[in-house]
Write a structure and sequence with these properties.
The chain is built from 8 helices and 24 strands. The chain is an alpha+beta fold. A 6-stranded antiparallel beta barrel has the order 3-4-5-11-7-6. Strands 2-12-14-13 form a 4-stranded antiparallel β-sheet. A 3-stranded mixed β-sheet has the order 17-16-24. Helix 1 packs antiparallel against helix 7. The longest helix is centred in the N-terminal third of the chain and has 16 residues, at 3-18. It starts with a helix and ends with a strand.
């Protein structure tokens, strides 16, 4: 597929995605907001991964040698640190997110990442590692075989092949919960819903939908994020059923106009509610072409020399005709994309054009760069 055809297909997809729908879909409350105080807690621990095939930490990672010596000492083996010369061990940091309402005995997936100079954690096994919370208490214990999403292959002569990140991996169901975080929803006299995307209109619509569902003023929007619930005594007695009913309510969310751009990959994502004012737009193409030819220079007469290759480089530039268009006030982003498509604008050029329109005050949308 040619570059022109590829650009046409990409812009056609953008036009399809940004075309206004007949009606804005409704979204469940559970997909818009979370309950205040109901959140996960990060856990962290320091451990050792053993069983590596010579891809562990070197002798420069003194903390690995010290940790291995302490581990052996706890198991009744006394070895001086100076005598330890193993490359099958790597020091790692172990992390996990402790979800709310978990109970002792449940299992969670853990993330493992090397902190030394190990080349790969492939084939390794994490030794028993306590996982502590911000309060210093141990909430889980991790252990198990490390699964990585990459590979590292080393060959003779210093040649090696690396795919993805072999120094980080995970252990499915590798952590056992030993202590739970207390959550007493029924003891909370007041509940609050927190919008994941702050918006005054969405908060007001959320409170109105909840009040219509229950038939009285149960909810009240406090600001662009919080919606407070004041349940009656009968509803407060069973908070779980109350939140289950509230989270199934559907609301039409309201969002601000945004354009998400990623200059590294040339990705542009736009909403259909982006508007522009009257603006003139000029676009020109400048092509720089570099051609290198390899000419053969024969050896001089009466000489035993060999023919040599002489590179000849030619640089030429050409600039396409400038195109000036005028976009009238009130047009949608779909109209802009269609017009830019007629000009043959690439995705990266489109990013520069939108940034220039935003700087000129003609684009009514927030531009977010990734």
């Amino acid at each position: 597929m040619s570059t022109r055809s590829l650009i046409t297909v990409l812009l056609a997809i953008i036009v399809f995605l940004t075309t206004p729908l007949a009606a804005t879909p409704k979204v469940r409350v559970k997909d818009l907001a979370s309950v205040e105080g109901v959140r996960s807690n990060p856990l962290i621990g320091y451990g050792l991964v053993v069983g590596l095939k010579g891809t562990g930490d070197g002798t420069q990672a003194e903390f690995t040698v010290q940790s291995l010596a302490n581990t052996l000492l706890r198991n009744g083996v006394s070895v001086p640190q100076s005598a330890i010369r193993v490359k099958n061990v790597a020091a790692v940091m172990v992390t996990v997110e402790l979800p709310p309402f978990v109970r002792a005995g449940q299992r969670l997936d853990v993330q493992v990442a090397s902190i030394g100079d190990a080349k790969s954690l492939q084939g390794g096994m994490l030794l028993m590692t306590p996982l502590n919370g911000p309060d210093g208490k141990t909430y889980a214990v991790a252990q198990g075989a490390v699964s990585i999403g990459g590979a590292f292959l080393g060959g003779g002569g210093g040649n090696s092949v690396q795919k993805n990140h072999p120094t980080a991996g995970r252990i499915p169901s590798g952590a056992i919960i030993e202590r739970q975080v207390p959550q007493a929803l029924n003891q909370l006299g007041e509940l609050r819903l927190l919008l994941r995307e702050p918006d005054f209109a969405t908060a007001a619509r959320l409170a109105e939908a909840i009040n219509q569902r229950f038939g009285f003023e149960l909810a009240r929007a406090e600001d662009a994020v919080g919606v407070r619930l004041n349940p009656t005594a009968s509803l407060a007695a069973n908070t779980v059923e109350l939140l289950a009913d509230v989270q199934e309510i559907e609301v039409v969310p309201d969002t601000i106009a945004k354009i998400i751009i990623n200059e590294k990959t040339g990705t542009v994502v736009m909403g259909h509610d982006v508007r522009i004012s009257t603006v003139a737009l000029a676009h020109g193409n400048l092509t720089v072409e570099v051609i290198t030819r390899k000419d053969i220079a024969p050896p001089g007469p009466f000489s035993d020399g060999q023919a040599t290759v002489v590179p000849q480089t030619e640089v030429s530039t050409r600039e396409g005709p400038n195109s000036v268009i005028t976009l009238q006030e009130g047009v949608t982003v779909s109209d802009v994309v269609e017009t830019l498509n007629d000009l043959g604008v690439s995705a990266r050029d489109m990013i520069a054009i939108f940034q220039a329109m935003r700087a000129a005050g003609a684009l009514y949308a927030e531009i977010v760069s990734l």
